[in-house]
Amino acid sequence: MAIQLQRPHAAVVFLCFLTCGLSIPDPRQREALMQLEAYMQTGGQMVLTDAEQRLDTLLFKMKQEEMARADFPPSMHFFRARDLIRTSPIFSLLRKMPKGGALHVHDFSMVDAEWLVKNATYRPHCYMCRTDSQSVRFIFSSQRPRALPLCSPWVLLEELRAKTINATELDNSIMRNLTLFTDQDPEAAYPSQDVVWGTFEQTFLALWGLVTYAPVFRDYYYQGLTQFYRDNVMYLELRALLPQVYELDGSTHDRAWTLKTYQDVTRQFTAEHPDFFGTRIIVTINRGVNASVMTKAVEEAMKLKKGFPDFMAGFDMVGREDRGRPLWYFRDALSLPVEEGVTLPFFFHAGETDLEGTDVDQNLLDALLLNTSRIGHGFALLHHPVAKDLSRKRGVAVEVCPISNQVLKLVKDLRNHPAAALMSENHPMVISSDDPAMFGSSGLSYDFYEAFVGFGGIKSHIGSLKQLALNSIRYSSLPSEQQNKAMSEWQRRWNKFVSENDF
Ligand SMILES: *[C@@H]1O[C@H](CO)[C@@H](O)[C@H](O)[C@H]1NC(C)=O
Ligand SMILES: *[C@@H]1O[C@H](CO)[C@@H](O)[C@H](O)[C@H]1NC(C)=O
Ligand SMILES: *[C@@H]1O[C@H](CO)[C@@H](O)[C@H](O)[C@H]1NC(C)=O
Ligand SMILES: *[C@@H]1O[C@H](CO)[C@@H](O)[C@H](O)[C@H]1NC(C)=O
Ligand SMILES: *[C@@H]1O[C@H](CO)[C@@H](O)[C@H](O)[C@H]1NC(C)=O
Ligand SMILES: [Zn+2]
């Protein structure tokens, strides 16, 4: 359990290999090897205060109890594990812990489905129709909207609720359309990657008409910031599609308006919560588009970056990597910024796949060739030693999203997640939550729990948590002066957290 703060004597270890080979292994040599591994892991070199060490002793006891359970949450599907995690004392500590920034979160999965139903759909002028594939679509409109193909006639929800005997049941059925989370057996509900991605995409289409309505758009983002803030996240890098946002009369706004609105709401939120550090936006486009659409998108992103140099962090692509086009296909478009001498940092999703050796599987190396600032997911990184080495040497951090990878069926038991290996060698990485509302989680704490208890096992400790939080600032897109400010604010909150949990 003891945390090794001194560099173990590697020389002793190797000397012994030469001289102790013929007898039973030397216990001192064994100890030295174990210390070397403990030193190499994420947080292994962190110097801890007395109070931090006392908190670590407490965490260690909690973890031992957690690991002795028959129903160990990280080994189970998150939908089944969620209630167990909620009762875990480790989880309640993690909720209180200042976690730094969330660097991989998407725009329309920040806020739980319940808020969408109870708040957004209860506003006036909300119409709904049911699609042929058992999903729903929404629109706010001052007049009866024109019918959608493959959808039932629009009904005004206010009228439908008035006619419905049990409106709670109706609300629950709407809620099921707005998240992947289910009380049913998750393996039966989502037997394959195709099924789960199909539902994932339907769910986005279902909530689209709600969240792109201007008044909801603002409140949704404000509510999202609130949920992360309450989970003790102080900074966000939000991947945003910047869709056309519409008004009640059907008029629409352009992407610059949408980016400006994010900026205005962020300013309002930080004015009201001075210890929240802020948000930066990573503009995204679906990777299903063709080369000419991508060229236009990159050109537009360069323009937006000029207009919002501090608020916009850079550019990325979203959508199912296995089905979209690989990065290499877009190489011309993605080289425009460097050719034109314009700064447009990239934050590519890459290696969110188990299709070893396919074109898509090359995305990791291509992302690095295109000078990506971080790697989204990097699930396949262990299959690419060259990419892994480059990512380490250049400090291109991997954004690990444990629950997302499990729900989208890349890994079943989170103890076997490839990031467990990355964490055992202190690879540059951060923990994030991708699409928390889709997965029935929220903020960052659930993913921190899975990483700390699942990847780390018994050997990760308070130093690992501290390192992961610090990484989220160090590998953020913030300029170094701002990073220093964020770092000292985080340190202040961390000291408070440690002293409040010092018994
Ligand atoms: C929705 O939330 C907003 C912002 O918190 C609040 O002002 C509004 O009254 C809520 N609307 C409903 C219908 O609950
Ligand atoms: C309405 O449905 C909900 C959910 O199924 C149930 O809990 C509740 O008792 C029902 N209310 C009435 C008045 O039947
Ligand atoms: C989606 O909502 C509609 C309308 O209430 C309902 O008929 C359908 O069963 C819901 N879908 C799911 C997956 O629950
Ligand atoms: C690319 O996609 C756009 C939009 O779908 C389409 O209008 C255009 O014709 C496509 N271009 C090529 C070269 O296929
Ligand atoms: C990546 O960086 C290298 C070295 O600075 C540079 O030569 C190259 O043009 C960059 N490529 C892109 C696409 O940004
Ligand atoms: Zn993502």
Description:
- The chain has 503 residues and is an alpha/beta fold.
- It has helices at 10-19, 27-40, 50-67, 78-86, 89-96, 113-118, 157-163, 167-177, 186-189, 193-211, 214-230, 255-272, 291-307, 331-339, 363-369, 385-394, 402-407, 418-424, 445-455, 462-474, 480-500, and strands at residues 101-106, 126-130, 136-140, 155-156, 235-240, 278-286, 312-318, 349-350, 374-377, 397-400, 429-431.
- The strands form 3 sheets. The protein has a 4-stranded parallel β-sheet with strand order 1-5-6-7. Strands 8-9-10-11 form a 4-stranded parallel β-sheet.
- Helix 11 crosses helix 12.
- The longest helix has 21 residues, at 480-500.
- The chain starts with 9 loop residues before the first helix and ends with a helix.
- Zinc ion (ZN) binds at residues 104, 106, 349, 376, 434.
- Residues 130, 134, 136, 170, 173-174, 176-177 line the site of one 2-acetamido-2-deoxy-beta-D-glucopyranose (NAG).
Which structural traits does this protein have?
binds zinc ion; EC 3.5.4.4; single chain; TIM Barrel; 503 residues; alpha/beta; 2 domains; metal ion binding; disordered N terminus; four-stranded parallel sheet; binds 2-acetamido-2-deoxy-beta-D-glucopyranose; 21 helices
